[in-house]
Each structure stands twice: as structure tokens, then as C-alpha cells.
Design brief:
binds iron/sulfur cluster; alpha/beta; six-stranded mixed beta sheet; 8 helices
């Protein structure tokens, strides 16, 4: 079967507005068929850290913006607790269209497969070329897969920087939705507190790199 890819939709101009505009028309894999719209990355063009999630969720698909749902709330709070200014962070997803299955009347998230992750990879590479950030944070298995180009175990790589196809400073951590799930039950409260603290600690490692590169970044 022919390997489909977003490559044919990447424009010649690598600025963020041009990329976002072109991505709206992408048909690089089948996921556009079931989604409302492309959800491209969002943030300042001079952001020094890029945070990558999996794919838009139901709320993001409807809003057309990444990380506006409950997991985005966890991420916003963790960024603040880690001392990373919102203006220093660009947020995006490894896959730009919502993949879902109907359960009753609800659209339930479905994990993108290898083919879909790699089909969407040209958008991620283009965003990072436009941004040239000091650090990239991959949150969860799909983002980490997109960074390494193959499936990897997040927990084996978590909390450290790695050289990947996305950046020589790629930090691996969990997805905020994995932390959010632990908030669902009172008996998991301790696990939630521990995982949230570990997530903030990972983000602080990214911030430490920004601190080291602060003078280079024109602060
Ligand atoms: S998921 Fe990515 S490659 Fe597939 S259609 Fe959407 S933007 Fe294009």
C-alpha cells in the first residue's frame, strides 16, 4: 500500500501562519475525514520551548485550538509551577486531526497508529524549523514516537534529554491526560499528587535549559 504523507501539502514558506494555513487543507492521511478541522500548533513565534502532545481531543477538534480541554488545564498549571512563561511555550500535537470512535453519543479518543503519526510528521518538522526552539518536550508515547521515528517506551526515557529527529534537546515526559485520569478517583489522590509533581519536575528540567540559553535567546 502506498505510504501517504503530509509532505505534498507543506508550503515553500516556513513561517507559522503560512504553515497553519496550508495545514488546514491537508489530506496526507485519512484522519481529516472524521475530524471537524485541522488543529495546528499555537504560541509565540519566538517561543523557546515546544511542547508536543498526541492529537487534538474532542474539545480541541471543535475549537480548532490545541490544549483547550481539561488536559490543557493541567498543562497550563504545570507550566506555571515549573516557571515557564506561557509566552515562552508553543504547544502542538504529533497528529493534527482528531481520531475518534463513537461510544453512545460521545466521540472517544482513539490512539493514532504508526502510519498516521509518520504521515503527519512533516508538519511537526516544519513547525520546529520555523521555531528553532532551545528545547522540545514530548508528552506521551505518540509524541515520543514522532520524535524518534519509531515506537519507544516513555518510562525508559522519561526526564532526560535525547537527540532526536526533532531536536538535539528533546525531553521526554508523560502526557497531561495520563495525570488527569488519576484525578478521577479519590483513592488515586496520592498517585495524582505524585505524578503531577514528577511532571512539573520534568518541565523544570526544560526550564533549566532555557535559563542556560537565556542570554543567547536575547532575554
Ligand atoms: S492527521 Fe496530519 S497528515 Fe493526516 S490529514 Fe491531518 S494534518 Fe494531514
Amino acid at each position: 500500500m502506498e505510504q501517504r504523507s503530509a509532505a505534498a501539502w507543506i508550503p515553500d514558506t516556513f513561517d507559522l501562519p503560512s504553515l497553519a494555513h496550508a495545514a488546514a487543507a491537508c489530506r496526507g492521511c485519512e484522519l481529516y475525514r472524521g475530524a471537524t478541522q485541522t488543529v495546528f500548533g499555537e504560541g509565540d513565534a519566538h517561543a523557546r520551548v515546544v511542547l508536543i502532545g498526541e492529537q487534538p481531543g474532542d474539545k480541541e477538534d471543535r475549537a480548532g485550538r490545541p490544549f483547550v480541554g481539561p488536559a490543557g488545564g493541567v498543562l497550563d498549571r504545570a507550566l506555571a509551577d515549573a516557571g515557564i512563561a506561557r509566552g515562552d511555550a508553543y504547544v502542538t500535537n504529533a497528529v493534527k486531526h482528531f481520531k475518534w470512535a463513537l461510544r453512545g453519543k460521545r466521540r472517544i479518543h482513539k490512539k493514532p497508529n504508526e502510519r498516521e503519526i509518520m504521515a503527519c510528521n512533516p508538519w511537526l518538522l516544519a513547525e520546529l524549523t520555523a521555531l528553532n526552539p532551545a528545547a522540545v518536550v514530548c508528552m506521551g508515547t505518540t509524541a515520543t514516537h514522532a520524535a524518534f521515528g519509531h515506537a519507544v517506551r516513555v518510562h525508559a526515557l522519561r526526564g532526560r534529554f535525547h537527540v532526536t529527529r526533532l531536536s538535539p534537546h528533546t525531553l521526554v515526559t508523560v502526557h497531561p491526560s495520563a495525570i488527569l485520569r488519576l484525578r478521577a478517583r479519590p483513592e488515586w489522590r496520592d498517585d495524582y499528587a505524585r505524578e503531577y509533581t514528577n511532571f512539573v519536575a520534568d518541565l523544570r528540567r526544560a526550564r533549566a535549559l532555557l535559563d542556560v540559553n537565556g542570554s543567547d535567546a536575547g532575554e
